[in-house]
Amino acid sequence: MTTSIAIVAFGTRGDTQPYVELGAGLAARGYKVRIACNGVYQGLADAAGLECVPLDVDPAAAARTEEGQELLAAGRDMAGLTEAIVKIVGPGAVAAFGLMAEACADVDVIIGTPPGLIPYSVAEKRQVPYLVARSDVVYPTRSFPHWAIARSFGPFNRWTYPMAERVLWRGLKGLINGFRENALGMAALPNSSPFSKMRAEGIPTLFDFSAEVMPAPRDWPAQAFVTGWWFSDTPEGYEPPADLARFLDAGEPPVYVSLGTESPGVDQQQLGALVREALGRAGARGILLADPADIESDNNLFVMTGAPYDWLMPQLAAVVHHGGSQTIGSVLRAGLPSVSCPVFSDQPFWADRLYELGVAPAPIPIKVRDAARIADGITAALTDAGMRERAAALGRRVAAEDGVGRACDVVDSWLAGAPAIPRPVRA
Questions:
Q1: What CA–CA distance (Å, rounded) separates 189 from 191?
Q2: Which one is the CATH code of 242-399: 3.30.300.20, 3.40.50.2000, 3.30.450.20, 1.20.840.10?
């Protein structure tokens, strides 16, 4: 009998694409896979041959709202991030949660992504195995603090994780427990963080990043698996737009800039002016990820809405990015140096990590909006021979990994003896 798996993903394309790749890998091994994701990304699931339950949320549109700008402006502030998330999700929470529960209602195994409390609740109610999949470094360790806390507390770093989780849970528990009680007929989760409860139950976590970049700390338990990134590959027969191909052929490899959709308080005209000035100061051509209707292309700057990264990255000289894990993985896979301009959430953590590895200059927070500093970063990425050599060497190691295959191996071996989550007793 075929084992069925539901994956519940929620967020932007970068929060969705890797889980589609994981689902495709599991499907190739004979599992029947369904994914619940934001409806604007259903095409990704369809292309991978996965059944899809679309959630009625458009993350890009949400980012442009007042609440979305509050989210982006919150930086590492967990309380601010949580408050903004609740404002965005709250009005449609019951409908979205209902669709998540529907996607998980008849499967044998459930895989949840952050924060994953609805699919976890369904797994708990139905007593089926549950796994966590995520791309941020969130598991208690003494090695470094939670990404929401910028300073180290040495041996007490481990306690920053439940501290941050309690802040997150304080904001979410009304929505989550309301759905558990009213829609699922379950007892409320406790006032203390449910995330520690999940870890105590031995639920495995699959981390979608490379141990070459962020190795698992020594005090992580055996149930935490760093698998390597879950990359997507260019569809067979892909042909780039003719104007993009002409731009790439017209001069030296350009610098790719991906900042626009996550820049709080920066309109598209300001973004275009910032990028043009930075590239001009650095003497480089560039490709900007933005809407061509808002920013006009010219001989030195090509504006586009996107292209497959594994096709595009090898044709670039360097990348300026927001520090998101998935973008970083693609940059490193191509062996490129980069400039990090982090915005919020765990992006500063990843930006610091690239700097520590010597494959990027010091991070430049996007709120600085200093074209001269960004130009200096680009110049370093283009001319620092040691940085470029380190990036190329790291790229070879990252590219050699099979993150999806490793993740599927973990799922295979764990399910062979996986326990179901005990059903809670209603108070």
A1: 7
A2: 3.40.50.2000
